[in-house]
Amino acid sequence: MTSPSQKPPLPRRTRRSGHPATAGIQEAVDARDALAAALGEAGVQLPAMHVRTPWPDTDGGDEGRAARYALVHLGVCSAAVAHALAAVIKVGAAGGR
Question: Does the reported pTM lie above 0.70?
Fold first, then answer.
């Protein structure tokens, strides 16, 4: 348990070596890659996109345990990239009606 003055550890950005990817982590990596490819085809690149696993449980003794799931972190981007992404989404949404 962390004291009020200590910050919890940051989420891990990638799985630790030595731990096989769980199905949930592999799903997040595949989703990230598919999204990056689709955005690339539309001319949009999110420069800081990556996969993060959750913080370890704070009940102790689990630092060696592989995470069961992961999240696709889209990161930050410039205003120009945000406008391009919005335009791609708007075109895609209009085409789906």
Answer: no
Distance CA 52, CA 28 (A): 9
Please check whether residue 74 is in contact with residue 46, taking contact to mean a CB–CB distance below 8 angstroms.
Answer: yes
Helices (H), the chain: 23-41, 79-95
Q: With 0-12 CB in 10 A as exposed, 13-18 as middle and 19+ as buried, what is 31?
A: middle
pLDDT, tens digit (0-9, with 9 covering 90-100), for 70-83: 899 999 999 999 99
CA 35 to chain centre: 11
The maximal CA–CA distance of the chain, rounded, in angstroms, is: 52
Question: Is residue 27 packed enough to be buried (19+ CB in 10 Å), middle (13-18) or exposed (0-12)?
Answer: middle
Residue 73 pairs in a beta bridge with 50
